[in-house]
Amino acid sequence: MSIRRLPNDLVNRIAAGEVVERPASALKEIVENALDAGASKISITTANAGKSLLRIEDNGLGMNEADLILSIERHATSKLSQNNLDNICSLGFRGEALASIGAVSELMIASRTATADSGLKISTFQGKTQNPKPFSMNIGTIVEVKNLFDAIPARKKFLKSDRAETSAITDMLKRLAMSNPDVHFIIEGSDRKTINWPSQSGKGALSARVAQVMGADFVSNSFSLNFSWAGITIAGLAGLPTFTKANSLSQFFFVNGRAVRDKLLLGAVRAAFSDYIFRDRFPVISLFISLDPSEVDVNVHPAKTEVRFQNPSAIRSAIISAIKHGLEGVGFKASSSVADAALSSFKQPQRHYAPSANQYQNVPSIYEPQMAGLSEPSAKFEHQILEPEVNDYPLGVARALVFENFIISQSEKSLLLIDQHAAHERLVYEHFKTQLKNGNIDSQAQLIPIIIELPIDDCIRLEQAANDLEKLGLFIERFGEKAIAVQQVPALLKNPDINKLINDLADELAEHGSTQVLGARLETVLASMACHGSVRSGRILKLDEMNALLRDMENTPHSGQCIHGRPTYVELEKSDIERLFGRS
To answer: For the whole model, what pTM was predicted?
Structure first.
């Protein structure tokens, strides 16, 4: 078969398959054009999840007749200065989006410049274009996309449900709105609730826009990112380690103002939070990366959602450093969602009614009122202060210990419940890291070496890892064929379960197959050691020990969550408690 040129309409439909995957894809291309045109207000109307109608109106610069005609031709663009693909500073640059959209829908574009008396509109359907006609409109551009993919039933049947497509449109607009806080976005239609995000300006513009899009709850439970290194600037907001989600859909990434979805960025965020959250939970983040345009290739994918960095390791390091620096400023703070979850656990009282003296009289009398969850025998107060101390500590002053693990503390305005084991676990771990950063971890010699019997293979692995373990304050040596002698343990560990610690370390080495990986996993080993060496549940702390633990938490970063990501304390403000009793 001889080679032949494909007709233009077929070429455009093939290109549409790369650029226009779903209604949200078409919307993205058109809104990006509006942003590139300097629009300060963009209104979007949808119908039938965008499949029947996408209407985008902006107040940007507009187009004259010549530009309007060229706008729907393939590879025609105003955004590539000097044909330079290595320094792209606009959102759209390929020049094929409108041509591709027009090949798979009924497309109408109307536009008016500031110097024109009226607008012009042009229409295209299945590759056939009408000449421009006069159109009454304000300055800016209106784009209407109707009956998307009707001409390609095979493509249309692969679209998801209306709910899923509507959600994809909203998600796409969230990303575009967050990267452009100075633009007013309005989204409405017969298939959705109206969304109105007014423009934001000034120093707090980004936080205000993120609050509009992601919710004020996220902003109040987040910390700022502000980091620069080697020409890379990292900005944005990241949620506290105790403010997480079950998936990564609440992670938003932007590179030079372009919304992207990149495995490198996802992995860097995961690594930065690895010390602080559950493995099956995901941090919430809105991350903005700025760097020289020549250092990043945005031309990797037709939809421009993927990028390639010239120096990916530098980007990864900058993101991890930015988040680590931000976390250092958080201190012991835990998210308010922990308190909200605690409040929701309290149950309303259930009223029980006794039979009336007259079985025919329908006037119930209240009898034996009980509150489910609080009507059981009271918890034992092992330590109780009769005379409150007047102190203004953030985590308050210890009042009691209940269930042999939870410290009840009172501050000036709150009541706090602290998990002594989880809190001490984090404290030991952070002190371990500080000592390791400053050199080796302090150790304490055992009066009599502890002999632990193990399989031969485990003994060999531990013996090979002995030098690395010494850096962690753990000194061991081989004791016969099937045993290890523990000579010294980290001084930070108080009454640790040495037998279980050594067995867990042996399992860690066996799982990763080589003692060489231990150096790269020192923090994981430290976490295991901290867990075994922390105050155990069931240990009755004295009053001064409880208060010492609280003061240590206040002075230790990240003490608001344990090394597994669980919260170490719950804080209920006085107003929260009053609300439980209907006093608010």
So the answer is: 0.67
